């Protein structure tokens, strides 16, 4: 038995925090054309003019938030050189504040001093807007509001209000520039035409990173985060390759580098190796599946459970009708009314998108036609682990008894 002392031994890190999510790098690599366009769109602000509203879009992890923080920090710093200029910036993540009401009350509270904050409930929406206009006008100057992950907003009223505030006569002193950021490429098309034309006066698209670009991002971060020579040669290329597979997501690549570093440190290894990256990747995938399953509703979990029992019996890959009959049987045990076979077919593809199960298309040529087969994408044990609550609620199917 160890003595559980805490002792500093081999740590590969110089500054581990540089790999965490909220770290903003000093410069961004490989985003020159995006930054140039973005910089140009913000340029009027330095003259004290209201910039066009801007809409940024691109897949997750391509540097939209990082670019925004980077440019707005610069803008605020540069604005200090001009006495007649007052620029205020605020970044709101709509993932946490997903209604117009909440965004508006958040803005009121950001601009008020702590003693005067309003509560999150108890006003009508129009009252909150009135308070918001008052605060914005009292503050005055140029106000740049970033609504990040804007696709989480359940209604677009605040977008309409803010993007047209001056035209609508709600503001006289302050000039607002609105910056909306979305991972969801279809978000813009779903907006009402009025909101779309005012929010998207400028649209800037962030392209996806390839493996080489991700290597550059990781190389830059390695310098800050790790001590010299603690990564074996293949660590960065491997993390970059995995990131490129994950639709060019720099965050995923950085997370993997962090996981590999942590594993090496836990083992007191002198260097971080390819092996740490591979195991790190495995662990991250498991965590992702567990989170994915945790977010499913009861019926979707029953579907995953149905496939898990088939897998335990060696009956996968399975066709949707086989999965459906197992799902129906499990629904009876769970005392739930089974949904339709059609619902199931549609949801199997969603579950595949989440990386929970895999699909293969079988083509039997002219005689048999085409059909799809499904299997678990992840280890049965990992999936059953994530389904723990479902199993508790409805008992364990005989097929998986040996696994839990
Ligand atoms: N060009 C880049 N140079 C350096 N770091 C980057 C670059 N692009 C992304 N990153 C880093 O990758 C992570 C994800 O980027 P982020 O801006 O949050 O993506 P998005 O907002 O597009 O989802 C962040 O840690 C960010 O600092
Ligand atoms: Mg972001």
TrEMBL record:
Coiled coil: none annotated. GO terms for biological process: cell division; DNA replication. It comes from the Archaea. ATP binds at residues 62-66, 209, 221. Residues 50-228 form the AAA+ ATPase domain. Keywords: ATP-binding, Cell cycle, Cell division, DNA replication, Nucleotide-binding. One of its GO terms (molecular function) is ATP binding. The keyword Cell division applies. Residues 304-387 form the Cdc6 C-terminal domain. Involved in regulation of DNA replication. HAMAP family: ORC1_type_DNA_replic_protein (MF_01407). Belongs to the CDC6/cdc18 family. This is ORC1-type DNA replication protein. It comes from Haladaptatus paucihalophilus DX253.
């Amino acid at each position: 038995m160890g003595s559980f002392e805490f002792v500093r031994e081999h740590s590969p890190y110089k500054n581990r925090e540089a790999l965490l999510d909220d770290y903003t790098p000093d410069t961004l690599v490989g985003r020159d054309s995006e930054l140039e366009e973005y910089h140009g769109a913000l340029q009027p602000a330095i003259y004290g003019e209201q910039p066009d509203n801007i809409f940024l879009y691109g897949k997750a992890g391509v540097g939209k938030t990082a670019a925004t923080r980077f440019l707005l920090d610069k803008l605020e710093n540069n604005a200090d050189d001009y006495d007649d200029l007052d620029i205020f910036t605020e970044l709101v993540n709509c993932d946490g504040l997903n209604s117009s009401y909440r965004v508006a009350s958040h803005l009121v509270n950001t601009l008020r001093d702590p003693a005067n904050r309003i509560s999150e409930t108890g006003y009508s929406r129009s009252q909150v807007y009135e308070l918001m206009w008052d605060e914005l006008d009292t503050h005055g100057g140029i106000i740049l509001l970033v609504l990040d992950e804007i696709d989480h907003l359940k209604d677009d009223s605040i977008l309409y209000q803010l993007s047209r505030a001056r035209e609508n006569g709600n503001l006289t002193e302050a000039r607002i520039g609105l910056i909306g950021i979305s991972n969801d490429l279809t978000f813009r098309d779903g907006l009402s035409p009025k909101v779309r034309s005012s929010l998207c006066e400028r649209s800037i698209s962030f392209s996806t990173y390839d493996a080489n670009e991700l290597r550059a991002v990781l190389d830059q971060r390695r310098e800050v985060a790790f001590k010299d020579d603690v990564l074996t040669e293949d660590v960065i290329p491997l993390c970059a390759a995995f990131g490129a597979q994950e639709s060019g997501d720099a965050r995923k690549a950085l997370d993997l580098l962090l996981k590999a570093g942590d594993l090496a440190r836990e083992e007191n290894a002198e260097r971080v190796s390819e092996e740490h990256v591979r195991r790190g990747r495995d662990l991250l995938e498991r965590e992702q599946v567990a989170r994915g399953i945790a977010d499913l509703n009861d019926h979707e979990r029953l579907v995953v459970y149905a496939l898990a029992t088939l897998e335990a019996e060696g009956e996968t890959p399975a066709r949707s009708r086989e999965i459906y009959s197992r799902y129906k049987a499990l629904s009876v045990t769970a005392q739930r009314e089974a949904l339709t076979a059609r619902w199931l077919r549609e949801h199997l593809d969603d579950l595949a998108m989440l990386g929970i199960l895999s699909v293969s298309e079988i083509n039997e040529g002219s005689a048999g036609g085409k059909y799809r087969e499904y299997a678990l994408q992840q280890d049965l044990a990992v999936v059953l682990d994530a389904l723990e609550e479902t199993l508790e609620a409805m008992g364990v199917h005989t097929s998986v008894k040996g696994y839990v």
